[in-house]
Design brief:
Distance between the termini: 39 Å
Radius of gyration: 20 Å
Order of helices and strands: EEHEEHEHEEH
CATH topology: CBS-domain
Strand order of the largest sheet: 1-7-6-5
Helix content: 40-55%
Structural class: alpha/beta
Number of helices: 4
Strand content: 15-25%
Shape: elongated
CATH architecture: Roll
Number of domains: 1
């Protein structure tokens, strides 16, 4: 399955100049545990990183830093691992495995952010596929019982 058919469109975003406090407030407002950090120098948003609620807890609060002045740019890891909207889910899974990340910004052919795909999204898709396989087996047994009486 292609990422453009299953990624979360219009992910919550912030700029590198956003403070950790503002990022946390935005996460709360958008009901998400992560923000895609986008380069704000141009009208085409290009992802430069991801910040998570865990980053804020461990790197800001855990180190006693002031979230009102700590910038997101100091918390993100570079380079950001991204996926293309035309990539297959198996490629996204491999990127996550190789790089040890659970979230991938998804960009189009111009490098513009179009969405985000997470390990949870891929797991949900796998669970749905597994459920469909179980349903196929049950329906086959039922059909066979009806036709072979």
């Amino acid at each position: 399955m292609l990422l453009n058919s299953m990624c979360t469109l219009e992910p919550a975003c912030c700029s590198p100049r956003t403070t950790a406090l503002e990022a946390a407030q935005l996460m709360r407002k958008r009901h998400t545990g992560d923000l895609v950090v986008v380069d704000d120098g141009d009208d085409k948003a290009a992802p430069v990183g991801i910040i998570t609620d865990r980053d804020i807890v461990l790197e800001v609060l855990g180190k006693g830093l002031d979230p009102a002045v700590t910038l997101v740019s100091t918390l993100i890891r570079s380079p950001v691992v991204i996926a293309n909207d035309r990539d297959d889910t198996s490629h996204a899974l491999e990127l996550m495995r190789v790089h040890g990340v659970r979230r991938l910004p998804v960009v189009n052919h111009e490098g513009t952010l179009v969405g985000i795909i997470t390990a949870d999204d891929l797991l949900r898709n796998l669970a749905n596929d597994a459920g469909a396989l179980v349903d196929i087996a049950a329906r086959e047994q039922s059909r066979e019982q009806r036709t072979r009486r």
